[in-house]
Amino acid sequence: MAGAGWAPPQLEDFLLTERLGSGTYATVFKAYRKKNTREVVAIKCVSKRNLNKASVENLLTEIEILKNIRHPHIVELKDFQWDKEYIYLIMEYCAGGDLSRFIRSRRILPEKAACLFLQQLACALKFLHDKNISHLDLKPQNILLSSLEKPHLKLADFGFAQHMSPRDEKHVLRGSPLYMAPEMVCSRQYDARVDLWSVGVILYGKRS
C-alpha cells in the first residue's frame, strides 16, 4: 500500500485522481484530460522497475492487440505513453467497476441479466477468436461494466492474451487458477478453447 504522502504519476495531458485498482506490475487510476473536453479515462501505470522479460513481452503483446481492435464489448485502448519510470496505457473508463464487485453487491444475478452478460461476453470472444486472439485470463475481475444504471460488459486486461489459431497449442501456464481449464492446470498442451472453459466457470459463479 502507498504511504500517506504518496502521489500518482504526473502526465502532461491528464490529471490522475482516484486509484481504481493495482496489481504486481501496474496501478490503474481514474483520470481527466486537462484540455477542454475533460474526457474521463482510466490510465494503467506500469512500473518499469518491476518488469521482467516475460512481463515486458506480455505488455507489448497487450498493447499490440488492443491498438488494432475495436469492439463494443472490449475496453478501448485510446493511447499509450512512457517516461523514465512508467509505461501508461490510456484506456476507456468504465464507471460500473468490474463484474466481480457487481455480482457481490447482488449476491446472485437474475437469469435475464446473466443471459445478457453471457451474450455480450460470447460476442467479444467470438470477435477475438475470429482474429486468432485468445484472452487466456477470463475472470469476473477482468470484465468491466460501462455503468451501473444500464451496464454493458467490456472485456479488459489483455496481459496474458496471445495470438493463437484454432490449431495452435501452447503449454505455458497463463491466467488465474480458479478459472483455468484442466489441461492448463495439469501443465498439458492447450488451445484457444480454454477460454470457453473460463466462460463456463464465470457463468456458474454468476448463478450459484
Automatic annotation (TrEMBL):
The question of whether Nucleotidyltransferase is a record keyword is answered with no
What's its top-level EC category? transferase
Q: Kindly give the Pfam families that the UniProt entry links to this protein.
A: Pkinase
Q: Could you tell me the EC number(s) of this protein?
A: 2.7.11.1
Q: Does the keyword Nucleotide-binding apply?
A: yes
Q: Which UniProt keywords apply?
A: ATP-binding, Cytoplasm, Kinase, Nucleotide-binding, Serine/threonine-protein kinase, Transferase
Under InterPro entries, the record lists: Atg1-like, Kinase-like_dom_sf, Prot_kinase_dom, Protein_kinase_ATP_BS, Ser/Thr_kinase_AS
GO MF annotation: an example: protein serine/threonine kinase activity
Assigned protein family? Belongs to the protein kinase superfamily.
Report what the protein is called: non-specific serine/threonine protein kinase
Instruction: List the gene name.
Output: ULK3
